[in-house]
Amino acid sequence: MKKLFFLASVLLCLTSINAQTKLEYKLSVGDVFIVQQNAKQVITQEMQGMSHELTNDITGEYKMKVLEKKDGAYSIEMSFTDLNMKMTSNLQGVLMDVKAKEVKEGDIQSTMFNSILNVPVKITLASNGNITNVDGGDKLVTKMMDASGITDATTLATIKTSLGKEYGTEGLANSFKQMTYIYPNAANKVAVGDTWENEYSGKLNTKNKWTLDAQDANTTTLSCTADVVMTVKDANANMDLTGTQTTKVTANAKTGFINTMEVTGTSDGNSTIPMLGDQKIPTTITSTIIYKTIE
């Protein structure tokens, strides 16, 4: 009887060990992924008894091709294949409506964003999804500046700084980490129910706690809760906000690449506008971002 009990205990232990898995990207040279992104951000500010609501709708599509695997990391060529942005104010109506594939005569914004379509940028992706290097982001900013036709040096410098925060080397790295940096360190094996933490910085600083919710031969299911600090400082406005963010992910268990990801967040705090001095403007931002691999 004792031998049977011992054998059962060993089998249970082995089952527990086998249930642990190494979550990571397992890509092959030549792999190609087409990802669609849909984002909606609503910024609400209270000023002089009035509520100003600014809605940003952004849709995009990008292609990612694995070029090389070296020292446990992947070299990936990324290019935007589509980009659309619409900004609407509840007080002023449509402020911007850009479709990068549809260049309108005299529309500087559509010309600028059209200039970066299908322009490759190289990303170095660690096996846990951390992006350790981006090569070519600044080239995107330069192409947009050249396409703008703007010649005034002061205006060029202001726009370049603003675009660099989003499309420059560091801006792109921080942006794509939200989609890719989802796995624990390579040495750690996890089982369903286990958690791990990571963080990334930039305009949006997040401290993330991830959970492996489920896994089978085909699909890995993850969830994440995060504390968020958002700091924006530019010539037009400054924001200091804090909040929370939740993420739900399904990923291909064989490659590690996402199938779907939904990120929702709410942050609040205060904004200041230089022309208004030190007046604090109560500000709330809600956002939903959905990523989907379509190919």
Protein described:
- The protein is of the alpha+beta class.
- It has one domain (21-293): Lipovitellin-phosvitin complex, beta-sheet shell regions.
- 22% of the residues lie in helices and 50% in strands.
- The chain has helices spanning 2-19, 108-114, 137-148, 153-167, 169-180; strands at 32-47, 50-70, 73-89, 93-99, 121-126, 131-135, 195-200, 204-215, 219-233, 238-252, 258-272, 281-293.
- Strands 1, 2, 3, 4, 5, 6, 7, 8, 9, 10, 11 and 12 form a twelve-stranded antiparallel beta sheet that branches.
- α2 runs antiparallel to α3, α3 packs antiparallel against α4 and α4 (153-167) packs parallel to α5 (169-180).
- The radius of gyration is 22 Å and the shape is globular.
- The chain starts with a helix and ends with a strand.
- 24% of the residues are buried.
- Mean pLDDT is 89; it is low at 1-8 and 10-18.
Secondary structure elements and their pairing?
Elements: H1 2-19, E1 32-47, E2 50-70, E3 73-89, E4 93-99, H2 108-114, E5 121-126, E6 131-135, H3 137-148, H4 153-167, H5 169-180, E7 195-200, E8 204-215, E9 219-233, E10 238-252, E11 258-272, E12 281-293
Helix pairs in contact: 2-3, 3-4, 4-5
